[in-house]
Amino acid sequence: MRLLKPSIALMRNLRYIKKFALIFAIILLPMSIMMSIFILQVSRQLNYASKQKIGLEYNIALTNLSRDIQKHRGMVTVFLSGDIDFYSYIKNNEKDIDDDNEKIRSLSSKYNKQLKVEEQFEKINKEWLEVKNNLNVSPLEKSFEEHTKLIADISDMCQSVADISELRIQSKIENYYLADNLINTLPQITEQMGQIRAVGAKSVAKGNLDVYDREALEFMAKSIKQNMKYTEKSMNVISKNISKKDHIEQPYKEAVKGTENLIFTLNDKLLYPQEIAINVDNYFSYATEMIDKVDKLSLVEATVLQNDYDEQIRQLEFSRNIITTVVVFILFIIIYLFGGFYKSILESILSIKAVAARIAKGDLSERIQLECKDEVKEIGDSVNKMLDKLIESYYEVQKARDLSEKIANHDWLTGVPNRAFFVRQLEEIIEELQETGGTVTILFIDLDRFKWINDNLGHQMGDIVLKVIAKRLVDITKKRGIVYRLGGDEFTIILKNISQYEEIDEFIKIIETNITKPMYLSEAEYSVGASIGHVTYPHEGTNIDELISKADVSMYIEKNKKKSKNIN
Fold this sequence. Notes:
Residues 343-395 form the HAMP domain. The chain has three domains: 21-326, no CATH class; 357-409; 412-567, Alpha-Beta Plaits, CATH 3.30.70. Helix content is 76%, strand content 7%. With 568 residues, the protein is an alpha+beta fold. The strands form two sheets. A four-stranded antiparallel sheet has the order 2-3-1-6, sandwiched between helices. A two-stranded antiparallel ribbon has the order 4-5. The mean pLDDT is 86.
């Protein structure tokens, strides 16, 4: 027990809400930290895969640019060697390069936050514009060097993007070789094939092959063979570890065949025969076709790698969402159960406190509802019994009060509000309209021929007539106003928002029509009429006395009109 004294002392000085908050925080804090760390790790992996995907997408665009510039180099080489027919090809190719640049510029802007390569790309674009503008200025050798340097700079940028996006770091061995092929090996092969195309086309265009170009072509052919041997090793690893081998093996075979065919054509048509045995158009087209086979392999490998990144991202996002959902669900369950635990302890106290507060405000309808079976329930039951006694007394007093109020405010015979209630309500309405604006119309109704019925048929029949007329007036008025009995055979109606004389006259005609409908009294048919006067606030009066007086006068004017008609 001594060990618990500090804990007991702490808990005694805290309200229940603070006690549970402290315990809840101690339980929840470590769990939240662990879950956050786990989710953070998944998010980092997701960001890593997304960054690699961005780097791959950017490098694909750079590869397309490099491919078109290689083609441009070959065309310009042929053009400067004397074949002016290639000029139109060059211009079409330059449009492709401009499209490539625009695509890369868009990617640079889109991914600048991740890659930060906008400035580097603009340097390459500037270099390309210089090469493009020097078409008719630079000599053949210089143009070739400028193109080759530009291609090398693009290759360096590919390497830079690969480093920034960490494309070389792969968790799967097949992805490592795919990335290495895309970043290093295949670009080297296509560049060497591109140089074979350019140098060979230049020699074909000139009609002779000098010693320097021969050595360059032989060296590049040898380099291609060495690089293809390396791709053979990487393809063996890739094929063993990917599920859809056919997607990549067939393009690889075509790429190998393309390099072999290009080297064979080079040897057969350029290097070894006594005279060059191919024209420049055929050579350039054939070399381009073989290079396209290697480019197709690059595209397939990029697609495989990109699909793997997409799958990684999908799985990581799914894992993150599942983990987040599970964590949120667990937290919800913990909070829910903890809340239930807290509520079960405080329920008795809060129930008694709430009922006591309502009793203090005069509400005796509430009862203490406790699920517990301890001494607190006995207290609650005792309080409930006390409330039952109090409520009995309260209802008796309330019943007497309601009856008294009804007698004071309603006509005992017809059940409609009486004169006192009419005066009070009219005062309230006028006060409200003085602040908000608007109109109210008062109708004064005096029954014609009622006195004859009351005197000749008896007061009992007269009371029946008053009840029937009151009900008819209430049915006619409905939501448009309130009917009051002032006394005797006089009624009044308060109509809100009806101030136009046409509307008032139409409504009065409806009242007169309904009042004059016959009724059966002592097995005979009788009917009464009505003289109705009206007055509108604030047009015809601004205080209650003035309004009542003018309405009464208006009613008697109508009654006198009817008498005059009857005399005439």
